[in-house]
Amino acid sequence: MQASIAVSRDPAVQYLLRIGDTCLIHAQRTAEWSGHAPLPEEDIALSNMALDLIGQARAVLTRAGQLEAELGGSAHDEDQLAFLREERDFRNLTLAELPRGDFALTMLRNFALATFMKLLWTKLERSTDAELAGIAGKALKEARYHQEHAGGWVVRLGDGTAESAARMKAALDTLWPYFAEIFESDAIDEQAAATGLGPRWAELAADWREEFAAVLGAAGLALPADRAFRSTGKAGRHSEHLGYILAEMQHLQRAFPGGVW
Amino acid sequence: MSLARLDSRVERAWSVLDGVLDPEVPVVSVRDLGIVRDVVESDAGLSVVVTPTYSGCPATEVIESSIVAALEAEGLGPVRVEMRRAPAWTTDWMSEKGRRRLREYGIAPPGPVVAAATAPLRFVPRPPRPLACPRCESYDTERISAFGATACKALWRCRACREPFEHFKPI
ipTM of the assembly? Predict the structure, then answer.
């Protein structure tokens, strides 16, 4: 059994882990649809999007590991960071780890996350970290495509049959409380903004809300009222669902350390 | 070593790269695809600067090893492949020859990216920009799926000749 690694607590590393882990866990959930989507075209689409997200996660986690070394810690590579961290050391948004639900829930989550990532990558293109800026330039094109794809489905289902509209409404009610976490600010965010590594995620809230509301409007859905509940995945305090994802994702590397295809 | 000799080694490398094909679209070379950004010679050998097409493109590693193998087979080694992400690859860098080969292979080549990137996102169903069928050249075509068999392609069909075809997405 491969032992877990401890990761740097440096705010810059933690900021990168939030991005890389959100892409990674979102990819893992999205890939669950491979072979199970309601249409062959959507099966292919979801698998392709999962692939983009894995590629983004690999690049950002690689950069996070390099940064650990630059800050005087021990360097970790993308595989160590993905496969050898404990649940509490993952920094993804709780939203990304929630079960995939039905197709409506998956499309609404994809739309919410792609809209956010598009806005985030746009800002990160101007990061003071040249490597991160380079990753963002590529990922932005992908996020834009993901957003358009998922947005189309949110409208189509929300403004579709009574059954599809009810499912999209239920998806909105389920996911809405988890969107607030995206835009919660803390010391890690502040530090990233101060050093120019990246924006405070709260700065993206107004644009996100505008784009999200426009699509919901076209789908015949209204924004629900805000609630006091806050999920805390970014701080490493996850829902009960992440542990199961990691068990599946990490099992092979834990049981057969360094195993390759 | 004379400057003329230096140039010729780099030039020969470029012409070898003309024959290294994309493993997923095996009619277009990595050079025509526009992903080879630079070839630099130093004391350590040749360095080929490559940019990825998509973040998660599974062909990236195969492309790297094909480039090294092809150049070393021509006696141009040692060769090192360097990944450079910025500026991000765009299908606008694909050569005219690459576009022609795609069309001949049955894949509709990408149109210019500028319009796609600046167009506001719209979420009501809309016909994507007209695209000519690579088989019968009719513009009476429609998109079946925004994604295709590889990260770089989408699925279309022609209503005139009734054939499905792939489209190399402009990004």
Answer: 0.80
